[in-house]
Amino acid sequence: MSSMDLPADGRGGPAAEVRTRAARAVSAPRLSWLTLALMTTSSVASLRAAPTMAVYGLACVFLYIVPAIVFLLPTALVSAELASGWDGGVYNWVSQGLSKPLGFLAVWCQFAMTIFYYPSLLAYVASTIAYVVNPALASSGLYTAIVIIVLYWTGVWVSARGTGAVAGLASWGLVIGTLIPGALLVVLGGVFLGQGNASAAPMNASHILPAWTGLASLVLIVNNFLSYSGMEMNAVHVSSLKDPPREFPKSMFLAMGLVLLIFILPALAISWVVPADQLSLTAGVMQAFDAFFQYFDVGWLTPVIAVGLVAASLGGMLTWLAGPSKGLLLISRQEGYLPPFLQRLNSHGVQQNILVTQGVVTTAIALMYAFIPNVSSAYWIFSVITTQVYLIVYLLMFVAAIRLRRLQPEHPRGYRAPLLVTLCVTGLVASAAAMVIGFVPSSQFGGGSVWAYVLIVAGGLLVLGVIIPFCCLRFRKPSWRTVDAADPAAGGAA
To answer: Cα–Cα distance between 302 and 293 in angstroms, integer?
Structure first.
C-alpha cells in the first residue's frame, strides 16, 4: 500500500528496459541484506495486534508461525521478483499479468482497506489515551467514536497542507512505539514470572495448539494476515542488494524471525498478567503495562508509555494517510478511473477531495463504535473487513506472478523467486482460506448475533471490494483522463 504503486508508461522495448535497469543498478545506492531486513521489520512489526493473540496464550506461537510460513514468506519472495522486473508496483504487476481493470481493482483495494484500517487503529489510540485519563473510557463506544473522528479529521487537516513535520515522528515509530514498549513488556513479564507469580494463561505443552471448538477457535489467525501485510512495499529495494538471489532470501528470513519475536513475545507477556476473559482487544497493551507497573509500584510510568504508543500510532497514521490515496489519484488521472471532482488538488498539491470523501465514510464507520455494544467486538469486525479487502490484492498479485512467469519468461528480472508457482499456489490457498474463515465469528464473541456479524463483514467486502470499483470502471469516461498516459511527466511520476 504505497504511493509507489503507480502505472508505468510502458514505452521502450526490451533493450531499452535492460539499459534503464542497468543504469539504475549502477546509480542506485547499495543496501546490505541486514539493512533491508531491519527496514522490513520496521514496516511490518507492531504491538497493536498483540492483545488479539494474547487471548490464546501459548497457542499464539502457533497462530503466528502458520501464517508466516504460508503467507508472509510467499508474499515476500513473490513480490521481490515482481518488483525487480516491473516498475509501478501492484498496479503494473496485475495490469501486465492480468488486465488493467484488475490492476485498478488491486490498487483500489490497497486504498479502500484504509477506510476500515484507520478506525481500528484510532480505536487502539483511543483506548491507550483512556488509560491516562480514565481507564473506564476504554470500553465506551461513544468516547471511542469521538476520538476516532477528532483524530482522523485532524490528520486530514495536517495532510492536506502537505507538511513534512511528522516525518521524524513516523520514522521513530518503530523505536518508541514498538521496540522499547515491546522489550519492556517482555522484561517485566520475565521478572514477574521469575518472582514466582503464576501466569494468567497456562504455559504447558498441552496448550501449544489452540483448543478446537470448531472453525471459530481459529478465526483470530485471520487478523495475522493483516499483521503481515505490507511486505511487498520493501520488495522494491531488492535491486539495491549486491547479490539479490543470495541476499534477499537471507534478509527475508531474518526479517521474518525478528517480526515473529516482536509479535510473539509481547503477546505472551500480556497473557502472563491479564486473564483472557478480561482482555480488551483495543486496550490490552495498556492493561498489561498497568498491571505490571502497579505490581512493581511504578504506576507513574503508565502515562509515559501511553504517550509513546499514541505518538507512534499517530505518526504512522499521518504517514499512511496520503500514500494510498496519492497512488490511486495518479493512476486515475492517467486512466480516468475517478471523476474529476476526486482528482482535484488543493493549493499544496494534495488530493484533498479524496481525503475528505474518505473522511466522511470513516466518520460514519467510527459512529458504529457508539452503537455496537462491545468496543472489542467492533474493533475485531473492522479489522476483519480490512483484512478481507486487502487479501484481494494478494490474490490478484499471486495469479499475476504466475502468468508473468509464463507469458514473459525472458523479461529481465533482478531476482527470480525459487519454486514461484508453488509459492503462489500456497499464498493463494492461504489467502482464500483466510477470507472464508473471516466470515466465521471468533469464539470470543459467541454471545453476539452470528448473522449480524456475517452481514457486516460481507457488506463491507462487497461494497468496497466489488461494487465501488465496478462502478468506477463501468461509468468512467474518456474526459475523466486529466493526464496523458504518454506524457513524460506522467511516466516520470512512477
So the answer is: 7
- Are 443 and 56 spatial neighbours (Cβ–Cβ below 8 Å)? no
User: Residue 72 carries which DSSP code?
Assistant: I
pLDDT digits (tens, 9 = 90+) for 162-197: 555 444 445 566 677 778 888 899 999 999 999 988
> Mind listing the pLDDT tens digit for each residue in 24-80?
444 455 778 888 887 777 767 778 778 878 888 888 888 888 888 888 889 888 988
Q: Hunting for cell 490492476 — which residue is that?
A: 103
Q: Supply 206's cell numbers.
A: 498441552
Triad 460, 351, 11: Cα angle to 5° = 95
- The more confidently predicted of residues 363 and 1 is 363
Q: How far is CA 273 from CA 142, 201, 299, 308, in A?
A: 28, 8, 15, 21
CA distance linking residue 206 with residue 24, whole number of Å = 54
- The segment with the largest mean pLDDT, out of 191-195, 221-225, 434-438, 452-456, is 191-195
HSE on the CB side for 475, CA within 13 Å?
9
pLDDT at 59: 86
Residue linked to cell 463483514: 457
What average pLDDT does this structure show over 340-367?
A: 82
Q: How far apart are CA 130 and CA 126, in angstroms?
A: 6
Calculate the CA dihedral of residues 72, 75, 81, 83 and round it to 10 degrees: -110
Phi, psi of 31 (to 5 degrees): -120, 145
How far is the C-alpha of 203 from the C-alpha of 2, rounded, in Å? 40
**Would you say residue 357 has pLDDT above 50?**
yes
Task: Report how far apart, in Å, the C-alpha atoms of 103 and of each of 42, 116, 234, 247 are.
Answer: 27, 21, 19, 30
CB 218 within 8 A of CB 8: no
Residues 158 and 388: beta-carbon distance below 8 Å:
no
Kindly report the average pLDDT of the chain as a whole number.
79
Q: Supply the pLDDT for residue 236.
A: 63
Q: 3-state SS of the chain: helix, strand, coil percent to 5?
A: 75, 0, 25
Shortest CA distance to 494 belongs to which of 95, 44, 210? 95
Domains and CATH numbers, the chain: 52-493 (1.20.1740.10)
The position carrying cell 488530493 is 351
**What would the grid cell of residue 189 be?**
513479564
